[in-house]
Design a protein that fits this description.
By secondary structure, this protein is of the alpha+beta class. It folds into 2 domains: 234 residues, Lipoprotein localisation LolA/LolB/LppX (outer membrane lipoprotein receptor (LolB), chain A, Clam), CATH 2.50.20; 217 residues, Metallo-beta-lactamase, Chain A. It is 24% helix and 37% strand. It is built from 12 helices and 26 strands. The chain has a 13-stranded antiparallel β-sheet. The protein has a 7-stranded mixed β-sheet with strand order 14-15-16-17-18-19-20. Strands 21-22-23-24-25-26 form a 6-stranded mixed β-sheet. A hairpin with a 2-residue loop joins strand 11 and strand 12. It is globular, with a radius of gyration of 28 Å.
């Protein structure tokens, strides 16, 4: 009996010691306090409430996102001769100016062909509005909104402000043998992000995911290195970014301004923007659907309709489809023809597929589309995700004919283009109408022929002649309807 108290005491002492070890272990493994992590990083980087605006500039290399020559391959390389970005955290605003040239000949994008000059662009954001400057005129660009919001809040200081605002959770993660403190958060409906803060309390990397009208939820990785001090604010000397698994930017930063003046306000014209579809009857049962930067063409068949092109994003495609239902009530949309896989020409395809349309694309692009259409937009569900439909995709090799016994629609592959592989054009033999995108965009009326014919224009003429198409009119998916003579003048043949 005399040993019982000793045994009890020993057991109790052991239990107490074990409990203390467990508690100590719990304390050691407790997740970091996110607010403290943010505060330490802002102190180290010179951010916080005192940093309202920041401008950085540089040059480097990059790629045109969404303009791959062949579906599923890397984005076409570009040279970035100048780049600047003004970020205004207080007003949720951004301005980006860039001058770029092609670094490889094949692929899309609104750049001059290889060796024929540079493209200059200015893109803006303020709050819930995105726009571009075209000369002195602001032009609404709602399709760019998600990307620019992402760009604003995935700058090194912006991600800390966004993490604080969105009540980030903190943790730790080891990458390539190095341990980082992480801050994870969601900007509702826009993107999800995890920032990696290194041992010096500098933001070194941001992994993020954002909705995309073509690819569904799309991953991005941004890596910051070579931090330098600019008037008490530390900013990286190099910024590298991938999007959808391929490089899109490698910027060498040469200039940083802290708290520069900013007057970024969305113009009233941009705030009031709404998608508008201008309908022009091209022939009986054929309508040219314009009114924006990208056009579509509606073709009425005996018991259904065919839509050539659903571009840009849900908003544009929704407006086009509303017009389709108005023009041809009671007939289902059976097919949507995609001229090619470049994102500006494909951003509304999910919307058309959500309505039950079968996607007709090139056989070359079909495997990529099968995979891409299966990747949902979950961060902000789009029409296809909400419909719960599985996409039906059919590939065209060489030529495909659609016929209802009255009207014939021919779909031809454009061969030998530097713009895209798996490039389709649509020909209506009875009406002698050709529908095409990017192979030829008409110049304004009465424009003189260019000194050097555009290689894409020449290639289109070659394909028309090789396929022995009798074309009288062209319905381009950019620009105005024209007669064949306009194209022939553009290539120096009258």
């Amino acid at each position: 009996m005399s040993t019982s108290p000793r045994l009890s005491f020993t057991w109790a002492t052991g239990l107490a010691a074990s409990s203390l070890l467990v508690l100590a272990g719990c304390a050691a493994w407790a997740p970091p306090d996110p607010v403290a992590v943010i505060q330490r990083a802002e102190t180290a980087m010179g951010g916080g409430a005192a940093l309202n605006t920041l401008r950085y500039a540089g040059s480097g290399t990059g790629a045109t996102f969404g303009q791959a020559y062949q579906p599923g391959t890397s984005w076409p390389k570009i040279t970035v001769s100048s780049f600047s970005r003004l970020v205004d955290y207080r007003n949720a605003a951004l301005r980006q100016d860039a001058a770029v040239t092609r670094a490889e000949p094949a692929g899309g994008g609104a750049l001059p062909l290889m060796g024929l000059g540079e493209q200059r662009s200015t893109g803006m954001l303020q709050g819930a509005w995105a726009w571009n400057m075209v000369g002195p005129a602001p032009v609404a660009s709602p399709v760019a909104l998600d990307g620019r919001i992402h760009d604003l809040w995935t700058t090194p200081h912006g991600v800390l402000k966004a993490a604080l605002k969105n009540k980030a959770t903190a943790g730790t993660r080891t990458v390539d043998g190095r341990t980082y403190t992480t801050l994870s958060f969601t900007e509702p409906g826009r993107f999800e992000a995890t920032a990696y803060v290194n041992a010096e309390n500098l933001v070194e990397r941001i992994d993020s995911r954002q909705p995309h009208p073509v690819m569904g939820d799309t991953d991005s990785v941004i890596v910051f290195s070579a931090y330098r001090d600019y008037a008490g604010v530390k900013f990286p000397g190099r910024i590298r970014q991938t999007m959808g698994g391929s490089d899109i930017l490698d910027l060498q930063v040469s200039e940083v301004q802290v708290n520069p003046a900013s007057d970024l306000v969305a113009p009233e014209l941009v705030r009031q923007f709404a998608e508008r579809v201008a309908v022009e009857k091209a022939a009986e049962g054929i309508w040219f659907l314009a009114g924006g930067s990208h056009n579509s063409v509606l073709i009425e068949m005996k018991d259904h309709t065919v839509l050539v092109e659903a571009p840009l994003y849900d908003g544009r495609a929704g407006a086009v489809l509303a017009e389709v239902r108005k023009l041809v009530p009671g007939k289902p949309l059976r097919y949507v023809v995609n001229s090619h896989h470049h994102f500006d020409h494909a951003g509304g395809l999910r919307t058309a597929v959500a309505e039950g349309a079968t996607l007709l694309t090139s056989a070359n692009a079909k495997p990529w589309w099968d995979k891409t259409m299966a990747n949902a937009n979950r961060i902000r569900p789009d029409a296809l995700t909400r419909s719960a439909r599985s996409a039906s995709v059919e590939g065209v090799t060489g030529k495909r004919t659609l016929s209802d016994g009255v009207r014939t629609v021919e779909i031809h592959e454009i061969q030998g283009s530097v713009h895209a592989q798996g490039f389709l054009m649509v020909y209506l033999p009875a009406e002698k109408i050709l529908i095409e995108a990017d192979a030829y965009t008409p110049s304004p009326p009465n424009s003189p022929a260019p000194a050097q014919p555009n290689a894409n224009h020449v290639n289109l003429v070659q394909n028309i002649e090789q396929n022995r198409l009798t074309v009288e009119r062209i319905l381009p998916l950019h620009g105005r309807m024209v007669v064949l003579a306009d194209l022939m003048t553009a290539v120096g043949r009258k």
